[in-house]
Structures are given as structure tokens and as C-alpha cells.
TrEMBL record:
Xref: Pfam families: Pantoate_transf
Biological processes annotated in GO: pantothenate biosynthetic process
GO molecular function, one term: 3-methyl-2-oxobutanoate hydroxymethyltransferase activity
Keyword annotations of the record: Pantothenate biosynthesis, Plasmid, Transferase
Record organism: Bradyrhizobium guangzhouense
Record family assignment: Belongs to the PanB family.
Protein name stated in the entry: 3-methyl-2-oxobutanoate hydroxymethyltransferase
Amino acid sequence: MPRIYDWAAREAERTVTVADLRASRKSGKRYTQVTAETAEEAAAAEQAGIEMLVTRARNVEAVRRGSKHLFVTAALGFADAVTQDDILRTALKALSDGADAVITARGMATVSMLAAEDIPVVGHLGLVPRKSTWLGRLRAFGKYAEEALALFQRFRRLEEAGAFAVECEVIPARVMSEIRRRIGLVTVSLGSGPDADVIFLFTEDICGGEGRRPRHARVYGDLQALQERIKQERVKALSAFRADVTANGFPGPQEISDIADDEYAAFVSRLKDSGFGD
């Protein structure tokens, strides 16, 4: 496992580095990436052999408690950091907390600003859900020749701006393959086919959590059923507790502390002597 120093000058080991990701374009090695917002989710990903994580910038510390080794990319939220100074400060804080890179869906000026500080920057192209009003609906981006060509030009501009990688979301697989052959960016496919350096899915989708699952996701678990059982068990337990209290069944002898008879008698005697009798 490669040894590095992180952005807080701490010695660390990582499953993969930026250099490894760049080298993978020639070697053909593919990595896996999932989301994590908690130490528990990060630990599960590491135990499962996943190499890379994405988390919100404010959750990097928690994620690092769960995984010391996985490559962590911190997402810079639109509302969390607004001005260029805010964005740079948030990025550097996330890196100091243990992130290895940052991802932003902002414009090329922001990418250039971050890259100028030698920060590993991941762009976001294709379907960017927060910007989907421009498309009119959630759909694959690059389905038409002119749209695909314009998308290719965005990839080129992103690379020129200094990004080292790009999240490619819901781009037709054949379009993605043609673009990838013509750029130097590390490609992270989220619903954009197998021809990429990193294959990415949301943990919630993989594990079958609550909510609508996108077409490009494959479900490997059934957390939703477990979560429903947990909800039912919670209500069942709370109802039983209330019923026990109402019926004077709780607390019982096993849930209370007792006092020796002689000590209790001495206590009551002293109460009476102090004028606090019956």
C-alpha cells in the first residue's frame, strides 16, 4: 500500500493515489468508488475491498475515523462555499481533515483556481442533477450528436482548466468510450458504461436503501426491508414499555436497587428524629 503524507503533513497509507489513478489509464486497471457519510459506512467500504469514497466536505473527519486507507474525495457543496475564498478555504479544510481530492460541479474558473494550488480536482460532467433544469428533466446527456460534441468540448476545457479527473454521470456508453479515448482525464463512470478508470455507485443504491433507485444502479442488498423491520420493532418495543408502565409491570424487582433492612430502619428512624415523621 503506497505511503504518503496527507495535506496535514501526517504520514499515511492509501489504497490508491492520484498517481495510481493516472497510471491506470495505461494499465487498464479499474477501481471502485462508493459514497460514505459516516465512519460506519467508510469502514464497511474498506472491509469490502472498495478503493475510493466520495463524501461531503464537512463529513471528511467522520469518514476518516472509519477508514484510514481509502482514497477520499470531498464534495464541495454549492451552498457550503460560495465565494472563491470560501471554496478554497473549504477545500483546504477538507484536505487537512484527510481528503485526497475535491470534486466540484462549478465552472472552469473554480477548477482553475483550485488546480493552481496543486489541489487534485475532480470535475462533474454529463447529467449534473442540480443543473438539470437546463435539460428540462433527468435524462442521459449526450444522446444527440451536437450535444455529444458539445460535451466532448466541455471535457477538453475541464482538462485545460487543470482537473485531473472527472465524474461522468449518465452519458451514453458509446459516447463515453469515444470521449475517453481522446482525453487525458481520469474518468469516473456513474451510469456512463464500463469504459472508465473508476466505476462509481451510491452506497444507498447498492445496498437497497430507501428511495427511488436510478436506472443505472444495480441493487445488491435489501436494507430497505431491514429498515422497515427496525421501524416496526421500535414501535413494538415502545408500545410494550408503555403497556407495562400502565399495568404497573415496570419497573419490577429486577430493575430497582434495594437497601438492607437495618439500614432502611435506621434511615426511617433518623427521619422521624429530625421531625420528618409520618
